[in-house]
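Subgroup meeting minutes
Present: P.N., E.W., G.H.
Scribe: E.W.

1. P.N. recapped why we're keeping a running log of single-chain structure predictions: easier to compare across weeks, and new members can see raw inputs and outputs side by side.
2. G.H. added today's entry (628 aa).
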Amino acid sequence: MSTLTAKEKVDTYIQEQADVDLLRFITCGSVDDGKSTLIGRLLYEAQMIFDDQVQSLRADSKRQGTQGGEVDFALLVDGLVAEREQGITIDVAYRFFNTDKRKFIVADTPGHEQYTRNMVTGASTANLAIILIDATQGVLTQTRRHSFIVSLLGIKQVVLAVNKMDLVGYDKDVYADIVESYSKFAARLDFDSIEAIPLSALAGDNILERSANTPWYSGPTLMGYLESVSVEEASVEGALRFPVQWVNRPDANFRGYSGTIASGRVTQGDAIRVLPSGVTSIVEDIVLYDDLLETAATGRAVTLTLKDEIDISRGDVIVTADRPCEVSDQFAANMVWMDQDEGFIGRSYWLLLGAMRVSATVTDIKYKYNINTFEKLSSNSMSLNDIGEVSLSLDRAIPFEPFSDCKAMGSFVLVDRYSNATVAAGMIKFSLRRAQNVHRQALMVDRKARESLNGHEGKVIWFTGLSGSGKSTVANALEQVLHQRGVRTYILDGDNVRHGLNKDLGFTDADRVENIRRIAEVSRLMVDAGIVVLTSFISPFRSERDMARGLFDTNEFIEVYVNVPLEVAEDRDPKGLYKKARRGELPNFTGIDSDYEAPENPELDIDTAVDTVEVCVERILAYLDLEK
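Output recorded in log:
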C-alpha cells in the first residue's frame, strides 16, 4: 500500500479545497438583533477558532461581554475598541470558515443607520443575505432599510433568521407573526427566495443541529441551509466580458492583456471585439503564468494575446465579437451616497468602473427613496446614506452592462477630485435613450471661421472672488478697453444672469452649483462664436470652477482671482448684503455662513484693496493674447 508524501498530501488537500465552492454572505438587520453573536457562534460550531482563542474569548467575555460573564460570541467579530465598549458593530468585519461541503466568507455589517455605507460595502460582493430579526422586537425600520439595500444590490437569496427565540419562550405564534409581517413587506422587493428559520444564536438553537425547543419547526438548520443552498453565480455561458486591467509587455516580443473574466468564456481562436474602439481580432493564446490554456471562464485571471497588433489600453473591454455590450456616455443609475459632504446636481466627480476612470457629472437626481414607505422623494442633493436614482453624464463613452446582468460591468464608485474620497457607490440601470438619439450637427461655419472674421480668438476670462471684491468693476473696465481695441466681448454678470437665465435658482449650495454649470455652458457657446467672454460670479466652489475650466482647451480659460480680504469686502458692502447676512436676513451668504474656496492656481491673482482698477486691467491685458 503506497504512502503519500507530505508534498503529495498538501497538493491533494489544495486540490480538494479548490473543488469546494465558495459562498459569500452577509448578516444584517437592526441594532442588537444578534448579528455578531450569530457569526461568532457559527465560527465556534464550525471549530474555526483555536483553543487559545477560546480562552481569550472567555476572559474578554468576563471583562467586556454583555452576557453576564458567560461566553459572548460577538467579541469574536467586534474587533474595534469602540465596538466592544458600545456593544455594537461599526465597521464591516469579514471572517472565513469552511466545512466539508463548502467554504464561506461572511461579512458582519453594522445595524446603525449612520453606518449604512458600511453595510453597502459588505453587501456588494455577497451571494446571500441573512437578515436577523429580534423575536422580541419584530420587523423594525432598519430591518426594512437593510432588506431594501440587499434587494437593490441584486442579492436574490435571503435567510430570515428570527433570533432570540429563547427570550419569547420559543413561541410558535410569535415566530409565525414575524414571518408573515416580513413576507408582506418583502413582496415588493426583488428576492427569489426567503428561507425563514427560528433560532437562538446565543444558545445555539437551530444553528448546527435541530433544536428540541422548536418541535413545531421542520425546516433546515442554518448551517444545513448555508451548505446546500444553490446560489446563482456570474454566467459562464454568456457572452465574454473581459475588462483589461494591465497591458503586459515584459519585453519587445510579448504583448498580452491581463485581467479577470467578468462573465462568459474565452477559447483559443475566438473572434473578439475591443470596446469602446470596436476593433476586432482573434484570441491567439490564453496565458496563466507558465501554462497555456485552451479555455478560461468567469472568475479566472488570465492574460490574452491576440493575432493582431491593435491599440488596447487599461480600461478597455474585450468582448465576444458578435455579442458586444453597450457603449454609452449617459446612464440612469441607483446610487448610495457615502460622504459627509452633500452631492449636488451639476457637480463633477471621477467615476471608476473596473479599471476605467472617467469624468462624470450628476445631471439629475430623479428621486431619493424613503426606504420605510418606498415613497420616491424629489431632491436636488444627496446626503450621507441617501439612496436614490440619478442620471449621469460622462466625458466619453464607456462599455458597460446593466448591474442586474453583470455586477462587474455595472457597478461603479464616484470619487472626489480633490480629496480622492469615495463619495458614492452606484449600480447602472440602463443607458439613457437620449445618448443614442442626440447627435451633434455639423456646421458649415465653424469656430475658426468666426474667429477669422472677428480678428481674434475666443476666450473666457473667469472673475471669481467674494461679494464686494470688485469683480464686476474690473470686468466692466476691462471690457471698455477691449471694446475700444475692436475686440468682440460680452459680460456675463451674476446679478444680470439671475434676472433671466437663472431666475429660477436660489442661493443654496445646490443652486449655486447649477448656477455655475449653466454659466459655463453658455460661456462655451460664446467662445465657440469667437467672443471674449467675461464672467463675474462669486463661484465659491473649486469643483465647479474646475468643471468650467474642463469645458475649454488650454489657454482658453483664464481664471482671475480678485483676492480681497473678507473685512475689506464687508467694509465696502456696496449692496448692503453683508449687513443683511450679519442680521440673519440673508442665509447661505458666501463668506458669512457659506464657504468660499479660494483658487489654488489661478492664472491671475489681483487685489483691488492694493491696486487701482486701472492697474488691475493693465495686468490682465498684459496676460492676454488675442491674436489669431
